[in-house]
Specification:
Layout (H helix, E strand, L loop, with lengths): L2 H12 L5 E4 L5 H12 L4 E5 L2 H11 L7 E3 L7 H12 L5 H7 L3 H10 L5 E4 L5 H11 L10 E8 L4 E6 L9 H17 L5 E5 L10 H16 L4 E6 L1 H5 L1 H7 L11 E3 L3 H13 L4 E8 L5 E3 L6 H15 L5
Helix pairs in contact: 1-13, 2-3, 2-13, 4-5, 6-7, 8-9
The structure holds coenzyme A (COA).
Coenzyme A binds next to helix 7.
Length: 331
């Protein structure tokens, strides 16, 4: 299945469902173009935040002015006081009304509150905000699903001309996850992989294969592997494995001959954020893979973070994924 058929399948799920997705960065032309295209194709109902005049100007320039958009300016939002009160209630002792007044002027906090209050079903942001600024409001307000302690960020790595597709995690959120958290990330990622028609074979990556190296960092991955196997014995998961042992059958035959995953892994769990973030960017830039994501997993409602280098096409695609997550198809 290539990228076209992947998105073809997702589009079929979301078309005509009118899933309301908040796009907080209405001052950014790439965002407005993507939101307008989603609406034009009936794939989502965008809620664009910002100054109405400015956004309508962009829509006219882009040739999308004749559709009826929901545009909300947080500065003049009539229910701002109600939103502030709800925010203070949700943050239970961690934020005063003064804090709420300040924080909710930030479009990411405002957008996440629209999702929390049920006025939207998901959010896509980060075209001009850092990951931390985009994700923190979602962690504080939307929170993780029951039984999931950490949200994490997956990249779907797709290379059309070789028809290859892999999942990398966590490449976006947890800077130095514990063994327990790493195990949970692996299990969550297996579920996400399945959505993209990947039957997950999960490698818990390290610089060591099956005890070849000794270090606390290696022990963490070995421990995470053990915990993940206990939590879900049915998973095809193994570790700790170096990337070559995980991916190259000939190397696996030498380094991990008894492993059912080594040499054929398609889902890669990195030991920390440095390796995960560097790893996906190397595959993207040197390996010519399309990097789709980060797709956040584990939240009660989908909030997805864009890279600041995203194109309008990337934003459009993440909008489709977010709409599909909101419909529960990614659960
Ligand atoms: C995601 C991130 C912003 C959270 O950092 P933070 O806001 O400083 O986190 P805090 O520890 O202050 O926690 C804020 C809230 O989020 C929650 N939280 C933090 N990390 C979480 C996670 N991974 N999953 C779920 N909840 C989390 C905390 O429990 C806390 O909730 P509370 O306020 O209700 O108690 C931080 O982990 C980060 O910066 N990660 C790296 C992001 C990045 O730069 N990625 C690379 C580019 S893609």
């Amino acid at each position: 299945m290539n990228i076209r058929s992947l998105f073809g399948g997702l589009k079929e799920k979301v078309v005509g469902q009118h899933v309301k997705i908040v796009f907080p960065e209405g001052n950014d032309e790439r965002v407005v173009r993507a939101a307008a295209r989603l609406k034009f194709e009936g794939l989502a109902e965008p809620i664009i935040l910002g100054q109405a005049d400015e956004i309508r100007g962009l829509l006219t320039k882009l040739g999308f002015a004749d559709q009826d958009y929901m545009i909300i300016n947080p500065e003049t939002y009539p229910d701002f006081e109600k939103m502030k009160a709800e925010f203070v209630e949700i943050r239970k002792g961690k934020a005063s009304m003064e804090d709420a007044d300040k924080l909710l002027r930030d479009v990411n906090y405002f957008g996440v509150m629209l999702v929390k209050m049920g006025l939207a079903e998901g959010m896509v942001s980060g075209a001009c905000h850092s990951t931390a600024d985009t994700v923190r409001p979602a962690l504080q307000i939307i929170k993780t699903k029951p039984g999931i302690s950490r949200t994490s960020g997956v990249f779907l790595m797709n290379r059309e001309n070789t028809n290859e597709r892999y999942v990398f995690a966590d490449c976006a959120i947890n800077i130095d996850p514990s063994a327990q958290e790493l195990a949970e990330i692996a299990i969550n990622t297996a579920e996400t992989a399945a959505i993209f028609d990947i039957e997950p074979k999960i490698a818990m990556l390290s610089f060591s294969t099956k005890g070849s190296g000794k270090a606390p960092q290696v022990e963490k991955v070995a421990e995470a592997t053990k915990i993940a196997k206990e939590l879900n014995p049915d998973l095809a998961l193994d570790g700790e494995l170096q990337f070559d042992a995980a991916f190259v059958p000939e190397t696996a035959a030498i380094k991990a001959p008894d492993s059912k995953v080594a040499g054929q892994a398609n889902t890669f769990i990195f030991p920390d954020l440095q390796s995960g973030n560097i790893g996906y960017k190397i595959a993207q830039r040197l390996g010519m893979f399309d990097a789709i994501g980060p797709i956040l997993q584990g939240l009660n409602k989908p909030v997805n973070d864009l890279s600041r280098g995203s194109s309008a096409e990337d934003i459009y695609k993440l909008g489709i994924i977010t709409a599909a997550q909101a419909l529960g198809t990614l659960d």
